Amino acid sequence: MDRAAWKPFALGVAAATLVAGVLILAQTDGDSEAAARAAREKEVEAQAAPARAALEPSVDPNAPYDVEATLRAVRELDRAVKQAGSVREFLERVSRGDYRRVAPEVLATRKRLVDVLVKYYGALDRERDEQELWGTFSKLGDELARVLQTTEIALGPVAFSPSDPQRQRVLAEERARREKLQLEAAAEIRRFEEELLYALDAAVPVFRQVEDEWARLCAQRDRAYLYITGRESDAAARAARTALEMAPGDRESTLLLALALVESDGGGMSSERGPEVERLLDGVLHEDPDCAPALLLRGIWHWKRGNRSQARADLELAMTRYPVQAEALRDELDPYALREYLRKTRQGGRVTGLYRTMMLGANHFSPELQLARLELEAGSTDDALARVKDHFARRRAQGQWDLVLYDLEFCEDLLGPRYREYFPEKSYLDLVIETRAFRESVAVSIDNRSDRAIHNAALVLAVRFTDMVEGEYEAFTAGETQAELPPLRKTAFGDVELTYDGLGVRKTYEDVVRPVRAVLISDEGVFWIDSIAHKGEVARASEPEGAAQGELATRVREVLAKLAPESVGLERVKNLLSGDDLELSLPRELLRLGPLFRLDIGGESFDEATQRGARSRLEGGRLRLRFESVGKALDGAPQEVRVVAHSALGDFALVLARNEAGNYAFSRIERP
Q1: Quick one: pLDDT band at residue 13, thresholds 50, 70, 90?
Q2: What is the pLDDT of residue 624?
Q3: How far apart are CA 267 and CA 306, in angstroms?
Q4: Dihedral angle at the C-alpha atoms of 449, 453, 455, 461, nearest 10 degrees?
Q5: Burial of 113 per CB tally in 10 Å (0-12, 13-18, 19+)
Q6: How far apart, in whole angstroms, are the C-alpha atoms of residue 31 and residue 36?
Q7: Which has the minimum average pLDDT: 91-105, 137-151, 395-409?
Q8: What is the four-CA torsion angle of 209, 213, 216, 217, rounded to 10 degrees?
Q9: Any residues with CB less than 8 A from the CB of 595 and at least 6 apart, and which?
Q10: Would you tell me the crossing angle of helices 67-83 and 127-141 to the nearest 10 degrees?
Q11: Alpha carbon distance 568, 586 (integer Å)
């Protein structure tokens, strides 16, 4: 065959070979796709086996299940849907879950959802379809009560070259086959949606039933919480027992009952209550040996029985367990997020507050503060204060600043006046808040009017916004921890943006209910810090009554006994450009009263509380009080001048009398 004839023949053979290759390849692709799908289905079944096994009920259908554990399991499964990025990751998360004591009906509905997902996941053959499937599942799984529109799959054109008619026909057939597969995949997704919606619809009434049971259990436990906050231990025990009848084995109710029993007996545990406390706590610790609240309660129980070495061992072990469990215990707060309405009342806030303290080791459930309380009862004040510092060191390390407010409440209420007085210089630390023009932030500082430096100081603002109930605060960390607050200086902590979204409507600084208070955490101690104006309001409003009035009066008399002519110094400080100042030097012991002074003279008022011409400070071991530019008023004053001191522990007046030389000197103390 000559070259001219050979060339068309060769091209024809090549074209035929190409077409045949495409046809064979298409047939081969079909066979391999079927085999690949079968292999994939087998692989997916293997991946899903651990998740399905985890969702198998472990509770006898006729036995009581744990309502709290059931609700928590539902929340964990919902979080798994939100947090997982693929079907594979979701199945792995489910397989790691702990679903013991969960209601079998709830597990059955969740297992049905997994079965639907696995069925369609195994039928997919492309990564794009897998992403589509997971997107549909996660979206529907996150909105059980909503009907979503069907997810559409956009089909793109298949490009090919039209240069050869026979090749064009073969490639067009291949395009049609692939478009058919795409349409089948889209139909598969739609069938998946329908079947998934049926499964979700079946899960709703089962979940609602569990929610109703949990709501009734919560109502009963809330009664126990409120009785405990009111220190009505016997009533709290009755409420907790009723909760346990509703949900046998419920850990929270068990801990509440144990707490009520431990606190109901001021001395040693009674013969009836002791064995019950031991049974309750041993049951919890048998199931979870590292349960910090149970270890703490057992430590208090041992202490009250006189076994102080074992008590210390349990309380110190609880100290090590709370930080380890902090993250896991925070997760357990999720069910309470459903009960936002509790924050609308003061009582509801106490319920959620006590729950959080139990789970995170604050207030009554702080092992360090409980040990401090027991040390104080034994007369070891120094050891007790060391434990208080240990507690706040843990709080600082865990960064749970909002719990500081609960902790300080425990210290002041249950550790008593010895705690409130162990750092008396705190009265001379003033919170200073300055607004910023056209901004929602405020500048926060502390004015240290004492002669003691404060070290390693962190500041937490306690802010109440409008619509918050009385006694409820939102905590804001103020700037960075300061290495030192030098004596007789003002230290800035920086700007803090005071905004809050927790009440459904955004709140700003304009919505802040005055006063703003703060808690200072330092090496020297942890205590409330207030503005000097608020201190004045508290001092003027304080009216001790009854037995407390007699006790406070005794303490005030002890301090005022230090005042005598020889212990009070007066100096008229000359000023060239303004009137002379009057400075009083007083015994340092007066700082225990935390007084704010006022001088009314010549029709003018020089008032420290309103920061008008009066200021006191601790310096050189003395309390120094200065009234500014009062010289002219003194020159025309009557025979006696009274310097009134307002204190939360009681008011008194320093009477200054004019002597023959025309100068003023301390004369006497007057009480209201």
Answers
A1: very low
A2: 95
A3: 9
A4: 0
A5: buried
A6: 9
A7: 137-151
A8: -160
A9: 539, 616, 645, 646, 647, 652
A10: 140
A11: 5
Measured CA to CA, the distance from residue 483 to residue 515 in angstroms comes to 27
Cα Rg, the chain, nearest whole Å: 37
Residue with tokens 């459903």: 338
Instruction: Give the number of C-alpha atoms closer than 13 A to the C-alpha of residue 139, restricted to the C-beta side.
Output: 13
Burial of 275 (0-12, 13-18, 19+ CB in 10 A): exposed
Do residues 654 and 569 touch, judged by C-beta distance below 8 A?
no
Is the pLDDT assigned to residue 454 strictly greater than 90? yes
Whether the Cβ atoms of residue 77 and residue 99 lie closer than 8 Å to each other = no
d(CA 324, CA 152): 47
Give the type of residue at 583: E
pTM, rounded to two decimals: 0.65
Domains defined for the chain, CATH in brackets: 37-156+164-211 (no CATH), 230-422 (1.25.40), 425-530 (2.60.40.10), 547-670 (2.60.40)
Q: What is the DSSP string of 89-151?
A: HHHHHHHT---TT--HHHHHHHHHHHHHHHHHHHH--SHHHHHHHHHHHHHHHT-TT-PPPPP
Copy the structure tokens of residue 671: 């009480």
Specify whether the CB–CB gap between 221 and 231 falls below 8 A. Answer: no
